[in-house]
Design goal:
It is a single chain. With about 725 residues, the protein is of the alpha+beta class. Among the domains are: about 50 residues, no CATH class; about 110 residues, Son of sevenless (SoS) protein, Chain S, domain 1, CATH 1.20.870.10; about 260 residues, Ras guanine-nucleotide exchange factors catalytic domain (Son of Sevenless (SoS) protein, Chain S, domain 2, Orthogonal Bundle); about 80 residues, Ubiquitin-like (UB roll), CATH 3.10.20. About 40% of the residues lie in helices and about 10% in strands. The chain is built from 24 helices and 10 strands. It has a 5-stranded antiparallel beta sheet. A 5-stranded mixed beta sheet has the order 7-6-10-8-9, sandwiched between helices. Helix 2 packs across helix 19, helix 8 crosses helix 11 and helix 18 packs antiparallel against helix 19. The N and C termini lie far apart (about 85 Å). Keywords: Guanine-nucleotide releasing factor. This is RGL1 protein.
Length: about 725
């Protein structure tokens, strides 16, 4: 017999139980069956029968996926999800439950309520009167525990007591003695107890604590930096990025967790994310220091260093390291580097074209659609897919890529983590944690898991890298003293002034200005804003920029309290070009780690956030971990009113204008409601609503002040950016 299958899905509505709501999908499978031997006699070709002689059978099964529920129901569903054909539920729950419960609460429910085989026959779990039922339950619990240990063993790292791990070990000794899992838990406990406390970012720390005794931080020596080959620098940056990215704990990226990092009691929250941010900032600041740190450099020498960093960025692209690639591009687009117009004139045209193409990767057009598509395209590919519109660049790229292929070692992909942090914060802002009846909204967790799954996939791909640390470079990298914002701006002005006095004739200068301007016109890559002196900030970089977020470009979503400002591209006042749409204000805040931007970069009608733009792809489609046939609803977005809701950004008066929180509002919200939510987001006392007024920023010299009981949604100006200020009343 021969068989063929055709599967269709049909929405089966909802099922409501006490404490839970389920989505039901009907899976209908059509099976066509034919007798091979009689096929030819009946007019069929090969093994195919004519339609009238085909036997069709239909099989319908029900897929039940929990949509919302109490914590108790969600934990119970861990034991029944497989039987309901919700095969991804356990992975989704384990990846996201930290947003609404602690490991201890989940473990107690799983072991004490559902896993206590001695008391389960008293009605806690039905149908456990037989030995067979006990064996089934034991197997289900063992399966959940095994998945927990496989996917999230870090949940049990609770020094010094390790209460959860000891509780689990005690359960296994009583219910599954001498099992492999008992041995595994014992080994994990010993591993945790024996491991010394080590900084996650130990090898990339730029503090003096990471130096050999007697060494001090220093400004880069140009000759020493030039001695490192471009591909060696890129490989070492990739090595450091890979080590950090593989250590990232995915649930640390969840918006509900990451957004709490600024509270005093959470100063050690999400250390794996902070370490990645620290490395990103270290690369950005190293680029700036090597270019500006030595006053005695001639114009041509400084231009050569810029060329070298562009070539290193290109090598990072070949290695599929999008983190260091973006860090380097961000630094070159920073205030203090971008304003070196005379120096940029001496950068060769071919190298500038490479720089232009690399910058286009991070264009904010369609909410960074180019970088998103490229990342997903190369996530699991063996090598980089290099396309260049310039023949010389294409030839060079293919030559370097061929060298990589000749080594016979596949490459992983290191992403720019800020993209995922942005998506998860947007999801957290747009979707409610609880639904009617106080049930936990698990549909929200399914959406978040789609992003988490991408992070895990990329972490797995990083195992393909085979990079050896070069201690000479790593020590040099650690020794670099990073310039503050004020220092880099001052040195930039000095370098440009010195260049102006030694430059060629005015006629030659005008010609070169025209050449570089012509090169960048017509692209959305390199068009600068007006130059401004830097604002004071605790730690250096360039003005208007938070370094803590995985740099997401000036027009991207910010959910941060930014302190360490870094990298904002700036040109001189006479520059006729307008502000770029490419990550002009990007960077990580070395201390905070939040996605940030400069308000001034957003232009009317620009796509500013993940989620803005209907086809931008900012919030991933429901491909993984979702129920077939269930289409996601459109989410509220920033800078656009849609279906009676939108997202606004609210900053506190007196703080840096890029320090803001994203808030979801609807057409039912009035000033007191929005003010209270803004105060809560900024960790202020929500009862002080009467002490504040909410205003919308229309332009540099215009504001829209709302009356006390105004409807924010209908009263706001929807033709400018949805940026608001919460100001204490006089």
């Amino acid at each position: 017999f021969s068989f063929s299958w055709q599967t269709t899905f049909q929405d089966g509505g909802e099922e409501v139980e006490d404490g839970a709501v389920y989505n039901v999908t009907l899976k209908k499978v059509q099976i066509q069956q034919a007798a091979n031997k009689g096929a030819r006699w009946l007019g069929g070709e090969g093994d195919q029968l004519p339609p009238e002689h085909t036997v069709r059978q239909y099989e319908t099964s029900k897929i039940r996926a929990i949509k919302a529920g109490t914590l108790e129901k969600l934990v119970e569903n861990l034991l029944t999800a497989f039987g309901d054909a919700d095969f991804s539920y356990i992975s989704i729950f384990l990846a996201t439950y930290r947003a609404f419960a602690s490991p201890r609460a989940v473990l107690e429910l799983l072991l004490d309520r559902f896993g206590n085989l001695e008391t389960s026959s008293h009605g806690e779990v039905a149908n456990l009167n037989s030995l067979e039922s006990e064996m089934v339950l034991r197997a289900e619990i063992a399966s959940v525990l095994r998945a927990w240990l496989d996917q999230c063993s870090e949940d049990f790292r609770e020094p010094p007591d390790y209460m959860c791990l000891l509780k689990l070990l005690d359960y296994l000794k009583n219910n599954m003695p001498n099992s492999d899992m008992e041995s595994r838990v014992q080994n994990l406990l010993k591993q945790f107890q024996n491991q010394e406390v080590e900084a996650v970012d130990g090898f990339c720390s730029t503090s003096s604590s990471g130096l050999v005794d007697g060494e001090e931080l220093e400004i880069s020596n140009p000759e020493e930096f030039s001695s490192f080959q471009d591909h060696v620098v890129a490989e070492q940056l990739t090595y450091m990025d890979v080590m950090l990215f593989r250590r990232v704990v995915p649930y640390h990226c969840l918006g509900s967790i990451w957004s709490q990092r600024d509270k005093k009691e959470n100063k050690n929250l999400a250390p794996t994310i902070r370490a990645t941010i620290t490395q990103f900032n270290a690369v950005t600041k190293c680029v700036i220091s090597t270019i500006l740190g030595t006053r005695e450099l001639k114009i041509q020498q400084r231009a050569k260093i810029i060329e070298k960093w562009i070539n290193i960025a290109h090598e990072c692209r070949i290695l599929k390291n999008f983190s260091s690639l973006r860090a380097i591009i961000s630094a070159l687009q920073s205030n203090s580097i971008y304003r070196l117009k005379t120096t940029w004139m001496f950068v060769s045209k071919d190298v500038l074209l490479v720089y232009e193409e690399l910058s286009e990767i991070f264009s904010d057009h369609d909410n960074y659609l180019t970088s998103r598509e490229l990342l997903m395209k190369e996530a699991t590919s063996k090598f980089a897919n290099l396309d260049s519109s310039e023949k010389e660049n294409q030839k060079k790229s293919q030559k370097r890529l061929q060298l990589q292929k000749n080594k016979g070692v596949m490459q992983g992909t290191v992403p720019y983590l800020g993209t995922f942090l942005t998506d998860l914060i947007m999801l957290d802002t747009a979707l409610q944690d609880y639904v009617e009846g106080g049930l936990i909204n698990f549909e929200k967790r399914r959406r978040e898991f789609e992003v988490i799954a991408q992070i895990k996939l990329l972490q797995s791909s990083c195992n393909s890298y085979c990079l050896i640390p070069d201690q000479k470079f790593i020590q040099w990298f650690r020794r670099q003293r990073h310039l503050t914002e004020e220092e880099s701006y001052k040195l930039s002005r000095e370098a440009e002034a010195a260049a102006d006095t030694n430059i060629l004739s005015p006629k030659s200068q005008k010609s070169m200005v025209k050449r570089i301007s012509t090169l960048f016109l017509g692209t959305d890559v390199f068009t600068p804003p007006k130059e401004q002196p830097p604002k004071s900030s605790p730690v250096g970089g360039s003005s208007g920029e938070s370094t803590d977020s995985a740099s997401v470009s000036s027009c991207e979503f910010n959910h941060s309290e930014t302190e360490d400002l870094c990298v904002t591209p700036v040109s001189s006042p006479e520059d006729p070009l307008k502000k770029s749409s490419v990550g002009s204000d990007k960077g990580y805040d070395s201390d905070k780690g939040s996605i940030s931007s400069d308000k001034g970069c957003s232009s009317k009608g620009s796509v500013s956030d993940p989620g803005s733009g209907s086809d931008s792809g900012s919030i991933p489609s429901r491909d993984s971990g979702s129920v077939p046939g269930s289409a996601p609803r459109a989410l509220p977005v920033y800078n656009r009113q849609s279906e009676g809701s939108c997202i606004i950004r609210v900053s506190m008066d007196g703080l840096h204008d890029s320090v803001y929180k994203s808030i979801l509002i609807t057409n039912q919200d009035r000033i007191p409601d929005v003010t209270q939510r803004a105060l809560l987001k900024h960790n202020l006392e929500p009862d002080a609503v009467e002490d504040y007024e909410l205003v919308q920023v229309i332009s540099e010299d215009k504001e829209l002040v709302f009356p006390r009981d105004a409807n924010v949604f209908y009263g706001m100006n929807s033709h400018v950016n949805f940026d608001f200020i919460l100001r204490k009343k006089a």
